[in-house]
Amino acid sequence: MPITTRxxxxxxxxxxxxxxxxxxxxxxxxxxVVRLVAAGLCHxxxxxxxxxxxxxxxxxxxxxxxxVVEAVGSAVTGVAPGDHVVLSFxxxxxxxxxHGGHPAYCTTWLPLNLLxxxxxxxxxxxxxxxxxxxxxxxxxxxxxxxxxxxxxxLVKVDPDVPLESIAPLGCGVQTxxxxxxxxxxxxxxSTVVVLGAGAVGLSAVMVAALSPATxxxxxxxxxxxxxxxxxxxxTHTVDAGQAVLGEAIAEITGGQGADGIVExxxxxxxxxxxxxxxxxxxxxxxxxxxxxxxxVSLDVNGLLGGKQVVGLTLGDSETQTFIPxxxxxVKEGRLPLDRLxxxxxxxxxxxxxxxxxxGKTIKPVLTF
Length: 368
Description:
The chain is of the alpha/beta class. It is built from eleven helices and 18 strands. Helix 4 crosses helix 5. The longest helix is centred in the middle third of the chain and has 13 residues. The protein is globular, with a radius of gyration of 20 Å.
């Protein structure tokens, strides 16, 4: 039977999130109904809500859900009712990248997660008053008390870990972690620079501190975030409002430059400065996403020393192994996500949006 639930609906581009009763479709064979306990708020949600991406509105967003499975479709085998789950992105499971352990680069990733608003077969997962709504966001649309979730978005997790503490693992945290672990792979004595000390950047700082890197530089314009970065493992900080990035990195590294850089700001000017600050054979990981169609100019001769610029989606993570590993680190206190999280009642989602936009809260987590 279809399920009526309360959801935060965005009626049109630029409109606020408003609570409304919606109806979930019956679970398809490879879907599950999840009762949400928590859901992280991410800048991607705000970008879509603003009308910056062609997601069908009115619609239900949310892609960092965490909750308890209530029912499963006939073909679901990985989870059962009662299981605790973190919700992440979905993927087809059949293309070359999915089979190769890189589902974040699924050939159908954009329509399945970010733009389509429907299942792969074109059917809607959410409706209101008989009219289909945009849903299936990252295979979950978790800004709701209950969500209809793709099996490939479900990750079973340790039930002893509070779901409010691990909801952000589904997107922002695994992106920052994956930039360091899956792409940069720091070696002994290397230098890692993180441009932007938001949730993604601070996640990168925390895991860089668990790596063999010995110099970890956090760059931001907000003094409080730089201070937090130091507490979370940065060995050095740079105030981008007071220093020239390349000069500051050169001074810290004795003129060598950075072995690895994680760019989280989405600013092409910052990206260019980062590439110029790389050491020979250094790598910059592009994580921050400016508007579609944005271009950046680079000094081609400057790249010939073996520099690499690598784009990244969701940490290039294989979620079924990656997220449980992060949950274990949270449980053991080695990944202190609680330092980033501010919790808000679901009904206060607009306050959470305002606090994230103003910078008051690094990672808002809605609780149900």
